[in-house]
């Protein structure tokens, strides 16, 4: 399973990673870009420079997450996922260069892209909201084409998920047990995106 740990939960990142570790499942953690990517956005750079700097921002936040888990640096997909590791994605994305060089491709997209390339069918997005809200209500399940254009997940990630046949579960990392419950039981409070 792939778990994308966003910068929005940095204050609870250690506890989230401990939850993931306690499941005993093989998990690859993809870091968000956090404040480091926000700084890149403010710099008003050309698309190529901003793209690669934002990916480096993911590596920087990944190094912070690596203080709680083992780091994985790879420039190809010939690695075996065993245990729990934090992927520093820059080298991998740079080598394959399959994502658009724009802010359309956020860390959500990177997480789904990595899942697709590895043949992993489940991605958990850990963020600071309960899931995706439609008409003011938390949606428990959404088809890919039902995800609102503006929500807590980027639209390219949803398109890639549909392309690769990946399900995305969006949940709140500030609520103890949600990430763990989904990993172990396939059920928790949040929003599951897929094809129904």
Descriptive keywords:
MfnE; 21% strand; two-stranded antiparallel sheet; AceGlu_kinase-like_sf; transferase; Asp/Glu/Uridylate_kinase; Aspartate/glutamate/uridylate kinase; Carbamate kinase; globular
Short description:
This protein is an alpha/beta fold. Helix content is 38%, strand content 21%. The chain starts with a strand and ends with a strand.
Summarize the main sheet.
8 strands, mixed
- Low-pLDDT parts are none
CATH superfamily grouping: Acetylglutamate kinase-like
The residue fraction in helices comes out at 25-40%
Residue-averaged pLDDT: 96
Assign the CATH topology.
Carbamate kinase
Total domain count: 1
Task: Determine the strand fraction and express it as a percent band.
Answer: 15-25%
Multimeric organization: single chain
Report how far the terminal alpha carbons are from each other.
Answer: 20 Å
Q: Strand order across the biggest sheet?
A: 3-4-2-1-5-9-10-8
Secondary structure category:
alpha/beta
Succession of helices and strands: EHEHHEEHHEEEEHEHE
The CATH architecture comes to 3-Layer(aba) Sandwich
Overall, the morphology is globular
Rg, Cα atoms, Å = 15 Å
- Got a strand count? 10
Tally of helical runs: 7
By CATH reckoning, the class would read Alpha Beta
